[in-house]
Amino acid sequence: MSTREKVADCIRSMDSAMRSLPVDISRIVLMARSHDTNADELARFLSGHRSLSARVLKIAKSPCYGRSGDIDSMSSAIIHIGFHEVVAIALGSGIFAMLASAGKGSDVEQDRIWIHAIGVSLAMNLAAKYARAPVDGFSMLTGLLHDIGKLVFHICLPREYQEVLQFHQADTMSLHSVERDLLGIDHGESAYQLLTRWNFPDSVCIPVRYHHDLIQCPFEYLHQTMILHLADYLALRAGIGYSGNINPEISTEVMTAMGLSQTQVDELTEQVKTMRAQADDFLGALS
Ligand SMILES: [Fe+2]
Ligand SMILES: [Fe+2]
In angstroms, what CA-CA distances link 160 with 91, 164, 166, 179? Predict the structure, then answer.
């Protein structure tokens, strides 16, 4: 069996872990995708799952959003922090629990990868200001899930992925290039396989797939993918979490398209550094 087939097989096997969660993740994805879902319906559904709604409220009330006094119910969380933000927190929280249990016993420090992912999701709005394009409603979720393919590798191919990380640390090649060379698939593609299987919308799946491969990205999703690429770079440079990537690189095409100078990138990095405590609070509430 090739490595690609092993990954595909392992992703299929995660369906049962998904089904065993106390909350139906696929139902939240469907609600988020549907234009007919209103805030009341989402609030009712999430309120019916005590531990999930407690986690969502904890994050909504955390210093990340600075609105603790106003939020006492799921409805007020949706009003104050937004429909898509609550969806992102709920899905992130469910998937965090699922992958933590799937990866139990492995060496991977999932928390450090999640801190990086949270840092990216928090940096998305800042990065979007420079993209000269409206922010997609799913941008926070896209940031949160962008490196989920690395967790897939840690869980599905633990030995092979350790070799990938060791090779990357001893070489100047980017991590996604080493993944492609040694595994035949990179973390963008493995994440894409997982997220499309779980019916996430294209506006999440496609930027996640191409965040290191902008040249291949369909034009319709290029702006969102550039925002993700920049936010990823800023979080790595700011030292928020760890993603296994020791040589973060920003695409010169992204800098040109956004009209960004190196000085501006340095300033943005300083702003993202201030989000560290928010990211820690977020993870504390998620776990
Ligand atoms: Fe990545
Ligand atoms: Fe990343």
Answer: 28, 6, 10, 10
